[in-house]
Design brief:
Number of domains of chain A: 2
Oligomer: heterodimer
Structural class of chain B: alpha/beta
CATH superfamily of the largest domain in chain A: ABC transporter type 1, transmembrane domain
Strand order of the largest sheet of chain B: 6-7-8-3-9-10
CATH architecture of the largest domain in chain A: Up-down Bundle
CATH architecture of the largest domain in chain B: 3-Layer(aba) Sandwich
Number of domains of chain B: 3
Largest sheet of chain A: 6 strands, mixed
Radius of gyration of chain B: 36 Å
Largest sheet of chain B: 6 strands, mixed
Number of helices of chain B: 18
CATH class of the largest domain in chain B: Alpha Beta
CATH class of the largest domain in chain A: Mainly Alpha
Strand content of chain A: 5-15%
Largest interface: A-B, 169 and 166 residues
């Protein structure tokens, strides 16, 4: 299956060709006995039927129906087989495509949502391919065949039968236009109702905590009742016209019967023809009504395809393939602009330099862009304009592997694989020896804790590291980074505050991490950065000032304000001391 | 089970299902009537003499009209039945949701409930209101037509159903042997989904650290295995449904062949033969749908059992003689609690908190601090011992009454996508605009609100999207201030906030804590230095109690933790911290 911006809809529909042929054969052998029966009946009435003819005809009928069922079984098998092949191919495509996405992509999409797409939306394709589409084809083919045969029997009867179809189609189109706004409102109301319910459930702990005062329950129930009474009205509005349309369809059948009766009376058609027409006419109108039932399936299918495309249509990050040996040097950011959403700039005109082997801190209020700036250096996203240079090389021009060998980042969120602690640390360096891992763990201040566990380094961490505390996970993350040993380390200092009782251990680990490297730390506690080489103060996406602590205390009001407040915060006690 | 399901509709709803079924029957019968009339017409035409066609025309159109009206009534009824069951089920779930203890609402459960109230209720509506009336009608019509045909000619009637028992047996056998494969398939599916979630969560990690393809290959293989299991399962289904259809069709073939023979022997009239040919198809209809009906029944059973799990979950019952709370000192009398076998155990927690004092709970993570506050809020009830507020046992008080006396301020703030005004007003439904603004001022959030274009009438995004963590916290404090409850439980940790914001939050907390009975889960010991009482937990037991100075003198766990935290206060990056002196 080809990758890229393919029209999945078309590919998916094309795979069904074989089973469509089988379905056609099945319909043929299902319809054939009708002819045998009708011709046999006529012969009997006319007295031209030989006694031994029954056995042969019986066998022919049985044979046709046997073949019908064989093709039925085969078509079911084939359509499901090709459906599941398609599903598997699409899933593998999605898996491969995801690997090429930028890190920023994963920040903006929820895990649950992506999982829903690869599981549920892809499954909808099977529902469509193996169920809805074959049934649609059957339901469309049969009326066409029936109408064709009746037209052949007598063009007047055929015409009478299908005379009402155009009226039906026109009415259908007209009605959909008239209802378009109503239907849209219906879809919106249903969505709002469901969002209402989702919010109610998500917020129930608070609703319960304020149980005596809350009015949300009453409101949600009222909204639901209002919605339902509106929907009831809509149902009536839709049902009456739809009933009228099916009445029109059936009138076509009656017209055909009347025309046929007249023709038969006048001897213009024979008994055979009329009987056949009755049987086929009934098949015609029955199948026709099934077509509308599947309209909804098409909508669901298209929605699922769109969801899948929301992943597959995202362009992968372009990486250089050639390795470039970078003479490591300073980090320079030039004229960088970036916004998550159009019109809302997150980073504005950033110009900064981080000299080799210095210790740098980025400070600023929440939402000032500190984390985004740090993430740009790891190429989470590509800037809208401007670039990040390492040792004179634009990072968007070097390979993923090369960049990752230069920069490590320690985030607050630590992801753990459900494996042993040793394996989790080994992620930093695939071929690390046990000795190297222990050394890294010691520097990260986690070795003693690991040795206190019954299985020591072989302890399994549980799903998402559920058996470890936040502080312990942090130190493992630091151990990984120590092991990886890149010349540039970016870290989010809030990591330390996770575990106040072991904070100093993490601080020590951070100090060990930063030896002989370029460190960029997003600092929250301004106390901890008084001695660093460079502090960058950010404010609303811009660099407000940069320098060392003394310079900034003298020149930068914002920095001074932050430092003064930090002092206050550090000395706060919940209970005000009464004089 | 079916009884229980049907009890989720009002009388009106059940009536709708009944009406829908009846009119679907009439609809099908008028369709058959149409065919029989056509055949009679055919008969009359072959008899010879001319006759007036008009009454036949009126008759046919009349039948079509009846057919349409029956379908309309049935369609509308079934939709109304659907609305009825949906409303009843959803309101039952919503009303029962409020009757649980706070401990019930874990993230997992809330996710489950969300699925139940949407998917499962939708499924119930679809099957019970839309599919069952048709199914009932199909079987009733089959019975009516079957009897009708039997009366015409019992031998043919017999042939018509001759192989049906064999068909059903082969279907049952097929479904039984297929169920193992179904289970296999759904296991593979679960494997794939959980591997996928791990994959997506881990991609940033894998990209940042190494180039290994191992994980990706594992996930790909899992997807292929799932695909193969699905193919196998569907292969066996295709087998048994076509076998089933084969037996039914063979009955039909026998019917057609012998019927023709009887016609030849004039034991059967032409019309009777044609009726058999055409109407037998109607008779077979519900049988051909048998597997679908069975699958629907299973899915409804599953959905309903999930719904029942929520509705039947243990609730906190009202005490027989509910008492009032008349004082706000808190007493834990020798309380022990264990969540489940082999899990963390709280043992012999015994302490007294005086009215209007600040008590701090400290200790390493997982030592029992949160369990204490959860027990006070009756997330669970103690295994032994009791908890009293103002001398009254909390189990003897109406749960909602208990909760109205306690404000909870935690790190995880829940807000509504409603106006800021309404969010704060949650604390007191009769609050005036003035009171809300006063609370916001005390919570140090008023100034921020006034910078917004719509001020207090600004509508928040989902769960307060658009606000920073610090702003959300202050809103939740404003909400607690308006509630004005005598007891406050708070979790002290503030993370990821810049110093300016942090100072504001701290002032807000101090305002909230003034003149109330406060329990703080303290992480940073410096913030609770002058608490009236500090209780130290370790591994589920209280090891020390007292004021800050008393505890320092004891040189126990508290002193140890204090020293560790003091060390981190003075750290600065770019200095190597010397190894701690051995004590």
């Amino acid at each position: 299956m080809k990758k890229g911006n393919q029209d999945y809809g078309k590919i998916v529909k094309a795979k069904n060709r074989t089973s469509n042929v089988l379905i056609a054969l099945m319909i043929f052998f299902n319809t054939a006995p009708i002819f045998v029966i009708v011709t046999m009946t006529e012969k009997i009435i006319d007295g031209r039927m030989p006694e031994n003819g029954f056995l042969i005809r019986g066998i022919i009928i049985a044979a046709c129906l046997t073949l019908k069922n064989i093709f039925y079984g085969l078509s079911e098998r084939k359509s499901h087989e090709s459906a599941y092949s398609v599903l598997t191919d699409i899933r593998v495509d999605i898996i491969n495509h995801l690997k090429k996405m930028s890190l920023g992509f994963f920040q903006s999409r929820k895990v649950g949502e992506l999982s829903n797409i690869i599981n549920h939306d892809v499954e909808q394709i099977e529902v469509y391919l193996a169920h809805a589409q074959p049934e649609m084809i059957t339901a469309s083919l049969i009326p066409v065949i029936c109408a064709a045969i009746i037209l052949l029997i007598d063009w007047r009867m055929g015409l009478a039968l299908i005379s009402t179809v155009p009226i039906m189609l026109i009415l259908n189109i007209l009605l959909r236009k008239i209802w378009a706004s109503g239907l849209k409102k219906f879809a919106e109301s249903t969505k709002k109702m469901s969002e209402d319910l989702v919010e109610y459930i998500a917020t129930i702990p608070i609703i319960k905590a304020f149980s005596k005062e809350e009015t949300k329950t009453r409101t949600v129930l009222k909204h639901m009742r209002d919605y339902l009474s509106w929907v009831k009205k809509m149902t009536l509005v839709i049902s009456f016209p739809m009933a009228f349309i099916s009445f029109i369809l059936d009138c076509g059948l009656v017209l055909m019967l009347i025309v046929g009766a007249t023709l038969l009376k006048d001897g213009l058609i024979d008994f055979n023809g009329f009987t056949l027409s009755i049987i086929l006419g009934q098949l015609f109108s029955e199948s026709f009504s099934k077509i509308t039932m599947h309209h909804h399936d098409g909508i669901v299918f298209n929605q699922s395809i769109n969801n899948i495309r929301s992943i597959m249509d995202v362009n992968p990050v372009k990486h250089a393939e050639r390795e470039q040996i970078i003479k490591f040097g300073n980090i320079r950011i030039r004229n960088l602009n970036f916004s998550y959403e159009k019109g809302k700039p997150t980073l504005k005109n950033i110009n900064l330099e981080f000299k080799e082997k210095t210790i740098n801190a980025i400070v600023g209020s929440s939402g000032s862009g500190k984390t985004t700036l740090a993430n740009m250096m790891m190429r989470f996203w590509d800037p809208d304009s401007g670039s990040v240079y390492i040792g004179g090389n634009d990072i968007s021009r070097i390979s993923e592997k090369e960049l990752s060998s230069l920069v490590s980042i320690v985030h607050q969120e630590v992801f753990m694989l459900n494996l042993s602690i040793e394996e989790n640390i080994r992620i930093g360096k695939q071929d690390a020896t046990h000795k190297e891992i222990v050394k890294a763990a010691k520097s990260a201040g986690i070795h003693d804790f690991i040795m206190s566990l019954p299985r020591e380094y072989n302890t399994i961490v549980g799903e998402s590291g559920s058996k470890l505390s936040g502080g312990e996970k942090q130190r493992i993350s630091i151990a990984r980074t120590i092991l990886k040993n890149t010349p540039i380390v970016i870290l989010d200092e809030a990591t330390a505050a996770i575990d106040p009782n072991n904070e100093y251990l993490i601080q020590q680990a951070i100090s060990n991490l930063g030896e002989d490297k370029t460190v960029i730390m997003i600092a929250h506690n301004l106390n901890s950065i008084k001695n660093v080489d460079q502090i960058v103060v950010m404010d609303s996406g811009r660099v407000s000032a940069c320098g060392n602590h003394e310079e900034l205390m003298a020149d930068c009001r914002l920095y001074e304000k932050l430092v003064v407040n930090q002092e206050k915060a550090n000395n706060w006690m919940i209970k005000e001391v009464t004089a | 089970m079916i009884n229980r399901i049907l009890n989720n509709m009002t009388f009106k709803g059940k009536l709708m299902v009944f009406i829908a079924s009846v009119f679907f029957i009439l609809y099908a019968l008028s369709g058959t009537g149409l065919m029989i009339t056509a055949l009679n017409l055919l008969n009359k035409l072959t008899m010879g003499p001319q006759f007036d066609l008009m009454p036949w025309v009126w008759g046919l159109f009349g039948l079509v009209l009846v057919k349409t009206i029956c379908n309309l009534i049935a369609d509308v009824s079934k939709h109304f039945a659907g609305f009825n069951i949906m409303e009843k089920l959803r309101s039952r779930i919503i009303n029962c949701l409020k009757s649980f203890s706070l401990g019930f609402y874990t993230n997992e459960r809330l996710g489950e409930i969300s699925t139940v109230i949407h998917k499962d209720v939708d499924n119930m509506e679809k099957v019970v209101a839309h599919l069952w009336p048709r199914m009932i009608a199909d079987f009733a019509v089959a019975a009516i037509l079957g009897t009708f045909l039997f009366i015409i000619n019992w031998q043919l009637g017999f042939l018509m159903i001759s192989l049906t028992p064999v068909a059903i047996l082969s279907l049952v056998f097929g479904i039984r042997s297929g169920s193992r494969q179904q289970k296999e398939t759904s296991d593979r599916q679960n494997d794939m989904v959980s591997l996928f979630i791990e994959y997506v969560k881990g991609i940033p990690l894998i990209k940042a650290f190494s180039e290994s393809d191992k994980f990706k290959k594992r996930l790909e293989n899992s997807s292929r295995e799932f695909g193969n299991a699905s193919k196998q399962a569907s292969k066996s289904v295709a087998g048994y449904i076509s076998r089933f259809s084969f037996f039914i069709d063979m009955s039909y073939a026998l019917l057609a062949g012998f019927g023709a023979w009887f016609l030849f022997k004039t034991e059967l009239t032409l019309i009777e033969y044609l009726m058999f040919i055409i109407i037998s198809k109607e008779f077979y209809k519900p049988f051909l749908q048998l597997r679908t009906h069975w699958m629907n029944y299973i899915s409804v059973k599953d959905s309903y059992s999930r719904i029942a799990r929520v509705l039947d979950a243990p609730k906190l019952n009202s005490p027989l003689n509910p008492k009032q709370i008349n004082g706000y000192d808190i007493q834990f009398d020798n309380c022990s609690f264990q969540y489940s076998e082999g899990e963390f155990k709280l043992q012999n927690a015994d302490f007294h908190l005086k009215n209007n004092t600040l008590t701090a709970l400290v200790g390493p993570s997982g030592s029992g601090k949160t369990t204490i506050t959860n027990l006070l809020l009756r997330f669970w009830d103690t295994d032994s011992g009791s908890i009293r507020i103002g001398g009254t046992n909390i189990q003897e008080v109406e749960y909602d009454e208990l909760l109205s006396k306690v404000s909870i301020v935690m790190q995880n703030v829940i807000l509504f996508s409603d106006t800021i005004f309404n969010n704060i007003k949650m604390g007191n439904r009769n609050a005036t605009r003035r009171e809300v603004m006063d609370a916001a001022k005390k919570a140090m959030i008023h100034d921020f609100i006034m910078t917004l274009p719509n001020g207090y009438d600004t509508i928040l995004g989902e769960n307060g999207a658009g606000l920073s963590g610090g702003q959300k916290q202050r809103l939740s404090i404003a909400r607690a201030l308006i509630k004005d409850s005598p007891i406050v439980i708070l979790d002290e940790i503030t993370s990821n906030v810049d110093p300016v914001n942090e100072v504001k939050i701290q002032s807000a907390i101090s305002n909230l804590a003034a003149n109330r009975t406060v329990i703080v889960i303290a992480h940073h010991l410096r913030t609770v230095q002058n608490a009236d009482q500090i209780i130290v937990f370790d591994k589920g037991q209280i090891t020390e109690k007292g004021t800050h100075n008393e505890l320092l003198k004891k040189q126990g766990l508290y002193a140890e933790l204090w020293e560790a935290q003091e060390r981190s206060r003075t750290w600065t990056l770019s200095e190597k911290i010397p190894e701690p002196e051995p004590v």
